[in-house]
Amino acid sequence: MKVTLEHLTKIFPGRGRKSREQVVAVSDLTFEIPDGKLIGLLGPSGCGKSTALNLLCGLLKPTDGRIFFGEQDVTSLSPEKREVGMVFQNYALYPHLTVLQNILFPLQNLKGDKKLTKSEMQKKALDAAKLVQIENLLDRKPGELSGGQQQRVAIARALVKTPRILLMDEPLSNLDARLRLQTREEIRRIQKETKITTVFVTHDQEEAMSISDSIVVMKDGVVQQIGRPQEVYDDPCNLFVARFLGNPPVNLFRGSVRNEKLYIGEEPVMDMKGAEDQDVSVGIRPEGFILKEQGVLTCSLSGVEVMGRDVSVVASHACCLEQTIRAIVGSDTKIDLSNPVIRFDLKPEKVLVFNAQTEARLRVKDAASV
Amino acid sequence: MEHKNIKAWLYLLPALLFLGVFMVYPLIDVFIYSFEESYNFASQTYTGTGSYNYSYVLRDPYFLQALKNTFLLVVITVPVSTGLALLISVGLSSIKPLRQLYQTVFFLPYVTNTLAVGLVFMILFKRTPYTDGFVNLMLSWFGAGPIDFIDGSYAAKMFVMCLYTIWIVMPFKILILTSALASVNQTYYNAARVDGTPAIRVFFRITLPMISPTLVYLVITGFIGAFKAYSDEVALFGTDLNAAGMNTIVGYVYDMLYGNSGGYPSYASAAAILLFAIVLTITCINLLVSRKHVHYIS
Known about the structure:
Structural class of chain B: mainly alpha
CATH superfamily of the largest domain in chain A: P-loop containing nucleotide triphosphate hydrolases
Order of helices and strands of chain B: HEEHHHHHHHHHHHH
Largest sheet of chain A: 6 strands, mixed
CATH architecture of the largest domain in chain A: 3-Layer(aba) Sandwich
Shape of chain A: elongated
CATH class of the largest domain in chain A: Alpha Beta
Number of domains of chain B: 1
Number of strands of chain B: 2
Largest sheet of chain B: 2 strands, antiparallel
Structural class of chain A: alpha+beta
Helix content of chain A: 10-25%
Number of strands of chain A: 21
Helix content of chain B: over 70%
Oligomer: heterodimer
Number of helices of chain B: 13
Radius of gyration of chain A: 25 Å
């Protein structure tokens, strides 16, 4: 089922004695989710991603704009009529019902021509349980399950009535790091098997990048960028997106463009053909550094962290906006720790230049290292 | 380990002493009195021991009347007051405007003195040479009555007594239930909404199980409270409850000790022990029944 959002806006009225200002939680959200894809809504907390999800499932009514499931306008439909499945952040499994009863619950609500017989319900519930691999836990109560198992039950309950759209609110946030890796593969597998259009919300960029077909980066209720994870990472449209994606994060420098050259401090590091003179913020991805004795960027070396697969060089620079610069180089690189100065060449495609005031990306053709 | 135990007992000592002196000792004492025939407080003497006190009390028409009254009161007021309180609290939690006001109004009887409420009920129900009472006035608009609620038929008196009790006990139940309802996590309701659960089903399959521990607490304390009814009856029918035919078990115990016919501590003790046995049995049954249906959520 294709999902289309058109100018979706949600404004919460101001509450409380002191601040009566209204809150724009989601502003003019317009994008299309192709059928059968897994979409990650990504942003820091308070960016409106959960509000967007609640608008999709119908728990909140939009102030403005429309939502289409396929060709059907569902904007004014109540949640039960939208036929969505929802996995809540804390799972919301009914604690007094067994796993099986929990999965059966949505089926028992069906009315009219959709009403199922007992054995049909049982079969559907078992199929859903099999899909998420919890057939052996059906008689347990949610309180007797681990976090990961509860998560699976919640997914089974959301999937059992074959929803048109599956929505997940921070599906991995309550799991520990190891389980999170496992479960995100699991979500990917289930989504691929069922081919149900799925939207999930997360603040964890790694989570979103690793399993989504496409990510939507949001900030303060406004969509910043939409695209395939790698595209968004390689080609962020503004400083916020560049900083939000990537781990370790992008290294930021104060810089300037003068005479079509990019300067960090007083060192020219890159050609900027066609760019006007201006102050800029320069983001360099950790993998964008090349160790070179005659390199263009001179930093003072603080240390080296060996992480097995690769080595991360920790350095500092007067123009860096953070305390330290982190550069990732191959583990076979030899680094002379006795030398306090380290020099890098830069990979032009990993150097992202933004206007210092507007934070918008400055794009240049034929960027090349000097 | 040993040392720690001594310390723990030391901390518990004040409470234990208090409970021992004012709860356990009197209970044992009453139990002993109940088997001593014609015990006299002044001379501290009794004529013999045996179960005569019990057989007397159980054959005493006043006790049987009190037993009947108490049972009727319990059977009627506990379910009705709990059910009504549940309805009102569900209603309260589903409205936003004026909720505080209603909550205050519903809670007023709790902070009002029993005897003051009794006075109000008098004005509502009592017939005097000058007026038939407010309720009879209203009944007369519909061409019914007048009914003497205070000195009239048993059913009329029982009706007033139950109404009074329900009115008195409901505020506390409403207070407890509204807070129990408020503590049910909203996401359960959201999940139910997304799944298109009808309101009735949400109430019986989600809300009720979630607040079942609170309900059980209210039912058990409600039973115990209703079995111990006495002061409400005095407020309505005066101190001579036997004459009004509206006595309760506790009233009977009191009358046996201090009332007009007073001075029979042995009979009073036997009646008190009987009450204790009844309450204990009912509470045990309550706990056994509820164990199957209550969901304690860790």
